C-alpha cells in the first residue's frame, strides 16, 4: 500500500507530499500522521505540499482535519509551499483552511513553527510582542 | 425590364451622385469634423459604382448573393471605420438611406410618363436599400463591440498592478468595481507575485473601489484567504467612512481580516510586522 513518509526532525514531524494525492493515500496519511504525533510526542507538524498541483474538496478537508487533530494533540501544524492555483481552488471550494498556519516555503514554515513552539514553551515577553502570523479564527 | 433602374442609374450616374452627396451634406447630423468632403465623395462614388454593378444582374431581393459581395464589403469596412472613428449609428445609417432619396428623385424625373413602372421600381429599390442599411448597421454595431471588447481587456490588464513596496511587502491598489473576473485576475497576479518575491505581507488598498457591497466584500475575503493559504498576511487599507458604514449596515463580517484606514497606516503595521522601523535621519552638523 502506498504511504507518504513522515520524517522526525527534532520536535517536529516533516511530511513532504511529492505526488498528486488520491483519497486512499490521503486517508493513510491522516492515520499515520496522528499516530506519529502521538508516538514521537511531536510539538509541530510541517506539511510541504509544493509538489501538489491538484486538490479537490476531499483533499482540502483532509488537510484541515490533520491540522485540527494535531492541534488537539498539542502540535502546531504549518502547511507550506501551496501553489497559487491550489490556493485559488481551495478558496473557491469554500475551504479557506481556517485555523491552519501557512507559510510560503519550508524555511519560513520552520521559522514559524520554532517561534510558535518557543512561545508555548517559555512565554518570552519580548517575542510575544511580535506575535507573527497569528491569524484570528 | 428588371434592369431599367440600372440603365437609368448608368445614364444619370453623375446626377444621382450629386443629389446623394447634396442630401448627405444637407443632413444636419453630418460630421464634417470627422470626415472631409473629398472622402465622402470618394466613398459615395465607390459605393454607387458597385451598387450599380450589382443591380445590373436584375437581382433586387437577395443581398446574400454573389453580385452584392462588393457592395457589402464596402459597406462593412465603411461602417467599421466609422464605428472606430466615433460616428453615431444615425449618421452611418443616413449614409445609405440618403441614397434612396437620390435614386427616387432621379427615377421620378426619368419615368414620369410611366407611373406604374415608376412605383414598382421605387418599391424594389427601396426594399433593397433597406436591407443594405440593416446590414450596414449590423456591421457598425459589430465594430463598436470590438472597440468595447478591446477596451475591457485593456482595463483588465492595466488596472491590477502588484507593487513591491519593500522587501517582503506587496501593495495592491484596487481601482474600480471588483467583479468575479477581475477578482480572479487580481488573485492570480497577487499569488504569483507572493511566490516571486517571497513576501509575507500584502496590502490591499481599496481607496479606488467606489462601493463595497456583499459581493465585492466576498471577493475581497476570497483574495485574503487565498493569500493566507500561501503564507502571506493581508491588510486591507483605504477604507473610507462611507464604506465602513456600508460594510456594517450590510452585516459583512470583516473581523477575520486586518483593516486600516489608510495605506500609510497599513504600511506602518507591515513594517512593524517585519521588525523594521522608519526613523528620521539625523540632521548634519
Automatic annotation (TrEMBL), chain A:
Stretches assigned to coiled coil: none
The STAS domain, residue ranges: 29-113
CDD domains to which the protein is assigned, alphabetical: STAS_RsbR_RsbS_like
Alphabetical list of InterPro entries matching this protein: Bact_StressResp_Reg, STAS_dom, STAS_dom_sf
Superkingdom assignment: Bacteria
Protein name: Stressosome protein rsbS
Organism: Cesiribacter andamanensis AMV16
Automatic annotation (TrEMBL), chain B:
Keyword terms of this UniProt record: Phosphoprotein
Secretion signal span: none
Gene designation per UniProt: rsbRA
Keyword presence, Thylakoid: no
PANTHER family xref list: RSBT ANTAGONIST PROTEIN RSBS-RELATED, RSBT CO-ANTAGONIST PROTEIN RSBRC
SUPFAM superfamilies: SpoIIaa-like
CDD domains: STAS_RsbR_RsbS_like (cd07041)
Occurrences of domain STAS (ranges): 159-270
Name of the featured protein: Stressosome protein rsbRA
Highest taxon of the lineage: Bacteria
